[in-house]
Amino acid sequence: MTAFIIANMAPLMFGALVLFLLCGYPVAFALGANGLLFGLLGMELGLFHVELFQALPERVFGIMRNETLLAIPFFTFMGLILERSGMAEDLLDTIGQLFGPIRGGLAYAVIFVGALLAATTGVVAASVISMGLISLPIMLRYGYDPRLATGVIAASGTLAQIIPPSLVLIIMADQLGRSVGDMYQGAMFPGLVLTAMYAGFIALTTIFRPSAAPALPLDARTLRGFKLVQKVLFSLVPPLVLIFLVLGTIFIGVATPTEAGAMGAAGALILAVIRRRLSVDLMKQAMESTAKLSSFVLFILIGSTVFGLVFRAVNGDLWVEHLLTGLPGGVLGFLIVVNILVFVLAFFLDFFELAFIIVPLLGPVAEKLGIDLIWFGVLLAVNMQTSFMHPPFGFALFFLRSVAPKDDYDDKVTRRRIKGIKTTDIYWGAIPFVCIQIIMVGLVIAFPSLVEGGLGSRTKVDVNTIHLEIDAPAYGAPESSDTPSEEGAAEDAPEDPMEALKRQLQEQK
């Protein structure tokens, strides 16, 4: 029995982690407890010594010193302030008026505003809740199919996971050891393509099911002509300025992601002041929520560090590597299996948990297979986006359920009786957009240039071809920038201490 446990410590450890998670134990503590438990077992079986755990304090302090992770509270705080600053309301109202005359106009407006909110806030909850509160009643009022309305709102909100400044891309870059700026540049074009695919689905729906997404009636279009153009321009200026502050400064190399996040948070505060929405209560709520999310991320990262330390000590990384590199089909087979695995795990785990548990195991294998880790990170981010849309556990669906009307109600404008939204409507509405996200995963695999095209020309350095040549000074030679000549070196170099000791002993005899 002991021999079996020693030979299979890695798969037993991974299986125990899955068991912990299925039991509903908090992820951060499941990771840490699992690592400590198998660490003690490994020491008892003689697989490693207690000195292994002496590396833990330094690793925890390394997490605390990681400046990249500072971007998470900055972007979270910015998103929470913007959620309450009135920007989403103005955008949805104005863009809805702009697209109102065409079929599916409100759905196009939700997609467009979802992309803008994603590029400014980077927080899914803020986008879904804002659009659910503002757009959903209007869409139901004017005859939109409930499934289509809920699906497009939930899907547009999840664009915040792939369009920079996404929090998951920050975590992905940190776990893969790559630049956040490069990850943002690589993800930008796939995010825009996914946005266009959502809009294409709405266009097809309006062609084959025109009653599911009617145009706004004439009496609902309150803005026309120059007033509409003026309103559109004034509504678009704040988010575009914030997008430049956050993404523009990163892409042109003026600021790091952490510095850009700080500027974005300051810009959100200024915008809230201009709109007269900033208050003590707003600041308190935003800071409290930011502290909770940041602590959540930090605890999961510490737990994954404990798990990763022990898992590598029992050669778990080699077990995963042999398991995945031995798959049929080479690189393509690896990518297919990995994406199926991530897609299935996304039913039960959110993107933070996937990023901290799965990505550190997959990254080294992908690098050994010659896969660009920036491209691989963006591919996984697109796949993880489905974790917000999976019925029945998708978080975006839960966010929308919390603000969607459950019971029938009388509309104040049309005075019609409108049916409440069933949970099954939200689930069925999400399925077409999950399928679109899966298609996007296939497109990224089939056309790597979707990601690599946004990175421009990068100089690739093969670390195996690097040679370091250092001229070591002679033993006991004085520190000097001048290199002595060969003749002078032979005369001036001091005698070897051992030779001098032997000579003195011989002289004493």
What features would you describe in this structure?
The protein is mostly helical and about 500 residues long. It has a domain of about 270 residues. Strand 1 and strand 2 form a beta hairpin. The radius of gyration is 29 Å and the shape is globular. About 5% of the residues have low confidence.
Helix segment tally? 24
First and last CA, distance: 67 Å
Determine the mean pLDDT.
Answer: 81
Please identify the structural class as seen in this structure.
Answer: mainly alpha
Shape annotation: globular
In angstroms, what is the radius of gyration?
Answer: 29 Å
Tell me roughly what share of residues is in helical segments. Answer: 55-70%
Query: Major sheet: size, sense and barrel closure?
Result: 2 strands, antiparallel
Offer a quick outline of the entry.
With 509 residues, this protein is an all-alpha fold. The chain has 24 helices and two strands.
Descriptive terms for the model:
mainly alpha, 24 helices, two-stranded antiparallel sheet, 1% strand
Write the layout of secondary structure elements.
Layout: H1 2-7, H2 9-22, H3 27-44, H4 55-64, H5 71-83, H6 87-99, H7 105-120, H8 124-141, H9 146-157, H10 167-176, H11 180-208, H12 225-251, H13 257-274, H14 280-313, H15 316-325, H16 330-345, H17 351-357, H18 359-368, H19 373-384, H20 395-403, E1 409-410, E2 417-418, H21 423-446, H22 449-452, H23 486-492, H24 497-508
Antiparallel strand pairs: 1-2
